[in-house]
Amino acid sequence: MGDSEEVSRVSTCTITPSRASQEQHLQLSPSEIYLLTAQYIQKGLLLPKPDPNPKFSSPSMDSVLQRLKASLSECLSHYFPLAGRLTSHPDGTITIHCNDAGVEFVHAKAIHITLNDILRSPYVPLVVRSFFVHSGAMSHEGRFLPLLAVQVTELADGLFIGCSFNHVVGDGTSFWNFLNSWSELSKHINDKGEACTLSRPPTIRQWCPATNPPVCLDPPIDSWSLPPKPSPPLFNDRIFYFPAHSISSLKAKANSQNMDATSPISSFQAFYAHVWRTITRAHELPEAQETWCGLSVSYRSRVVPPMAPYFFGNVVKPIFLRTTAGELLGRDLGWGAKLIQDAIAKQTNEEICSWLEANAKAPIVFETTGLTTSPGVLMGSSPRFDVYGNDFGWGPPLGVRVGYDNRFDGKLFAFPAREGRGGIELHFYMNSNAIAALERDKEFMEAVEEKTD
């Protein structure tokens, strides 16, 4: 189950905001400029097929698609930057041109594939990558590609809604806030196509530090010699499930090894340190070999004054930690967790504003080259995102899956477990030898619970 020919496209159309947006240009911040060379975010949800009920008097695929299109149109009137395009200017600045050019909406079919074909195995079948539009597209291509593209794939007994979302326009928080809003509008839209009032409307460009004066690229991006799109190698895409009690045990263990710490180790810090140590063991690195881990920190609440909680944009700062394999594995879990804790704690208002100001003067962009020269791990997404609350009107999601989305050997995606209660689904993208080593690692697998659905 890995051939893109298994998925056939039925139709493609453009969805525009239900109400005309005020035409304007939104200036990009340094953290948005940084991700011009990152690929589009690609996340998608597996959903049950709608059953006949009062909300679906005619539960045909046409009625489902119409509901999704109407609610998406309404959602875009709130998230209007997604309906625009990136525009480069002669002075080197780049803006989001809010011109209501619209987003791409694709209806596809893979009716010989069942939900269980995707959900039952811990290994994600390659066909899932065909459930997304514009796979491998770089964010700077938003100058001529839609900033959002949606593919609704009809399965034998369900649906997959895959979103390709320009990473310059929004970070992971913005992505899931958008999806939460769309599903809310879809769930409550009436038979006349009239939507409800959005319970958590976004704040569009309320404030962002270091955007005045505008960030200028020299030379302008149109004259860059850009690298070709990376094609991810066919590594294994494997999901491990960590129940809440395993996370709690890791947290307790890390804190018991940091009795003199000024603040307790969090569940995430203990969990990420555990994963980093395990992957380092799996690679069988020499003691002197460098290893690293990275993550993105949202600065919505870290700057002064804090940004609105539903600020829509890209407001994350990447942080990387480096040490040697010998030091990471020669010390205990608590030491690794404290390393991560200290790096996050340094992300103060002063540190973030200094980083933004420096990158406004001398812009830098995301490069994967430095992430592949030595073995490491990069955590994407977050178990805090509301993934399984996305009910479009016929039931909550049954699973979440990832497309291309900036993959390389060692990229991880963390999602909350479907059952909630503090469990974590961790999606690994690694070479087969490393995955096999993880599965043989007793310490690692003791914290994992195998799932059959």
How would you characterize this protein structure?
- The structure is a single chain.
- This protein is α+β, with helices and mostly antiparallel strands and 453 residues long.
- It folds into two domains: 220 residues, Chloramphenicol acetyltransferase-like domain (Chloramphenicol Acetyltransferase, 2-Layer Sandwich), CATH 3.30.559; 210 residues, Chloramphenicol Acetyltransferase.
- It has a six-stranded mixed β-sheet with strand order 1-6-7-8-3-15, with helices on one face. Strands 10-17-16-14-11-13 form a six-stranded mixed β-sheet.
- Helix 3 links the parallel strand 6 and strand 7.
- Helix 2 crosses helix 4 and helix 5 crosses helix 6.
- The radius of gyration is 22 Å and the shape is globular.
- The mean pLDDT is 90.
**Overall number of domains:** 2
Strand order of the largest sheet: 1-6-7-8-3-15
Please tell me how large the radius of gyration is. Answer: 22 Å
Please state the second-level CATH architecture of the largest domain.
2-Layer Sandwich
Spans of at least 5 consecutive residues with low confidence = none
* Count of runs of 4 or more consecutive helical residues: 12
Please count the beta strands (DSSP E, at least 2 residues each): 17
Question: Which percent range describes the beta-strand content?
Answer: 15-25%
Mean pLDDT across all amino acids: 90
Subunit organisation of the chains = single chain
Q: What string, H for helix and E for strand, traces the elements in order?
A: EEHEHEEEHEEHEEHHEEEHHHHEEEEHH
Computed structural class: alpha+beta
Question: How many angstroms does the end-to-end distance come to?
Answer: 18 Å
CATH superfamily of the largest domain: Chloramphenicol acetyltransferase-like domain
Helicity level? 25-40%
Q: Class of the largest domain, according to the CATH hierarchy?
A: Alpha Beta
Query: In CATH terms, what is the fold-level topology of the largest domain?
Result: Chloramphenicol Acetyltransferase
Largest sheet: 6 strands, mixed
